Structures are given as structure tokens and as C-alpha cells.
Amino acid sequence: MRHLILVACLTLAACESDETSNADGSAGAGGAAGEGGAAGEGGAAGEGGAAGEGGAGGGAGEGGAGGGANGCADDVPAEFAGLTSPFEGDPAAIAEGEAIFNGTCPECGGNPPINCSFCHGTTGAGDGPITANPINPPPTNFTVNLGCDGDLFHRTLTGGATGPMGSIMPAYDGVLTEDQIWKVVSYIRTLAP
Q1: Could you say which of 1, 40, 97, 131 would form a disulfide bridge with 187 (CB–CB 3.0 to 4.6 Å)?
Q2: Whole-structure pTM value
Q3: CATH number for the 91-189 domain, one of 3.40.640.10, 2.40.30.10, 3.40.720.10, 1.10.760.10?
Q4: What is the pLDDT of residue 168?
């Protein structure tokens, strides 16, 4: 039954018109569904229903833009859609975010330490060691256009509970502090060209 509901949702997302209304009332580009997930209104979902190819779902696809506030996809909760990283452009914070991402920060929560690169790869291309055995949906490729900071923060905080159906990403709420999550978000932003 869940499979039929997912197929129906994907079909509806693919059939939406090319114009949708943004939060400010202006027209946005219509959402197109990618393999494994439905696009947020006004945002193109990549493979895996993700921001870009294989990832967190409902965000802007490669070369696309979200349809809601701050470039966020419409499915990003309002309390997150307007958020931006307080550490953007801060070299020390970005370095700490990189250490958390790559599992080289043993005091940064988790036992063993958190290691985002195990799934997302050292370059963030979604090609970490876990992908030696295919997982569906695949890890997010952070080297493409990602949508908004609030979405990255929300998905990291809540993990697979708010990502595409079947995502194995753990929630980091209570494992990492909010500042640490924002530092990871700021680092992730450096991975996209």
C-alpha cells in the first residue's frame, strides 16, 4: 500500500504545472520528481528525492532553486526555512565543521565520533565507503546546489525521520550541539562549487 501511495505522490509531483507560487506570491519553477522521492513545490528533486543527486529530499536540484523562503523547498518547516548559519565564512568554525564531518573530532559527540564522510564521502559527493553496498536512497551529494541552510540544519538535526522514505541517516539532535550542526552546515557549503 505504501508503495502505491509513493507512486501516486510521484505522479502528482511530476504532473504539476511549470509555475507554482512562492512564499512571497511570485511564480517559481515547477517541482519535478526525481527517482525515489517527490520534489518540494517550486524545487526540483534529484535522484533519491533530494537536494541535488541522491540526498535529503525536497530541496533544490542541481541548477534548480527551491520555491519557499530563502530558497528553501516548500516542505522545509517554517521555523527552519528562514535560518542561516551564524558561522558562514568563519574559517575556524568551518574547520571544526570539517573535523566533525570527517570524524577527526573525538570530542564532538558520538561514540565512535561522528563521521559524515562514511556515507557522504570525503569530498561530499555521496560516495563514502557505505556505498560499496548500494543503499536506497543514496547519501546526499553535497557538491551540487543544495537549497537553504535551514533545510541542511533541519535534516541533520532530525536525520532520516524527515528525509526521503527509507533514509538511514541518524538524527544528531542531542548528539551534536546546535552550534556544531551549524558548523557542519557551513563546512558543507564549501563543498559545492
Answers
A1: 97
A2: 0.64
A3: 1.10.760.10
A4: 92
